[in-house]
Amino acid sequence: MNILLVVLDALSALHLPQYGYKRQTFPCTSSLIEEEFTVFERAYSPSFWTPPAHASLFSGLYPHEHGVGEELPFFFPKILTIQHVAFAHGLHPVGITTNPIVTFSTGFARGFSDFIEIDKWDLFQQDFTGFKLNFLKKERGRLDWLTGEKGQVIIVEWFLSHLWRRLKKNILRNVLKFSYPYTKKAFRSALELLKDDERNYFIFINIMETHHNYNPPVKFRGKWSKRIKEFKKWERISPRNHYTKGKFPDEVIEHLKDLYDEEILALDEELTAFLQGLKDSGRYDDSLIIITSDHGEAFGEEGHLEHMSLVDPVIRIPMFIKLPGQRKGDYSTRLVQLNDIFALVSEVLNSDLPVPASSISPLSSERKSALSEIVDFEAHVKHVNVKGFEFQKYREIR
What we know:
The protein has about 400 residues and is of the alpha/beta class. It has a single domain (about 5-130, about 180-395), classed as Alkaline Phosphatase, subunit A, CATH 3.40.720. It has helices at about 30-35, 50-60, 65, 80-90, 135-140, 140-145, 150-170, 180-195, 230-235, 240-245, 250-280, 310-315, 340-350, 375-385; strands spanning about 5-10, 40-45, 90-95, 115, 200-205, 290, 300, 305, 320, 330-335, 370-375, 395. An 8-stranded mixed β-sheet has the order 4-3-5-1-6-9-2-10, sandwiched between helices. Strands 7-8 form a two-stranded antiparallel sheet. A hairpin with a 5-residue loop joins strand 7 and strand 8 (about 305).
């Protein structure tokens, strides 16, 4: 058995047809989801942004329990994670991330045997998932001959890699400017693992396709958005300015929402290709597949923009689960949270390792309430320099 945990970063449930959205933003994936997955209609994130949400996902704990928040956005506490649980039951845990703050340096590689940061493609990266320029790989021997000493080779590699990173930063587009190639690379890396290795895996994948900046590929741009010159500058402005420098005009917010929905179209195509690749690999039927998000995005609801608050479009997330052997789709009205995935994985693996009380498996238990919260609330309000906006410190959903 394999476990595939796919986090579609910043994807709001309220922008998907499975949750009542009028636009067909998920045309390719929808039929497969509805035929073979269980759709959890009431799924919530315990937080409004990435670090605490991922810490809850991995640990099963609420943000106020694991402590990851505005002032400490690093996952360094020595606590049991689902990666550890998977490893204890014979699965090889691999993390694949396109998110520049879900990284080794921020502590989120804890518990993974391999952790691949797609945003850090480098010229001389050694593992198969690195972005390799083959001609440079072949030149390694010639570099040895030119320098004569292995240490000098390292210096040359460092220098060339430094130039490459500067080129990526200043000329090429990184994941926050144009996420599509990173999305394709992340999904392809996971399929290559499953194709080339007979081991059973726990694979976590973070995909940034629907995260700001909203820059859909050309083939999807224009489905709903309009090419208006005056809107172009707004696409590059941080949504934080909506709070600190004055509210964005309504027509600009509507334009950003159109671009966001077009990003979902791009994501839909790549997610469908990934699921089909799983089927082609022969790993699909006996795998536990979880497709969800860490948070969503707001587009003017209650005056808010992006993911700075606990309004519904931010904390309501998609939750699609396919159990091993499941061949029939279903809809569930059970209340679930992102941190419940810990208990779900433990139950599927029949693990006797401890499960936090804050993580409740949707397979066997009813959750009476869900909690979304802003840890370090005062620091958050001060950070966004709020003027004229209302923020909730926490929300309890029943």
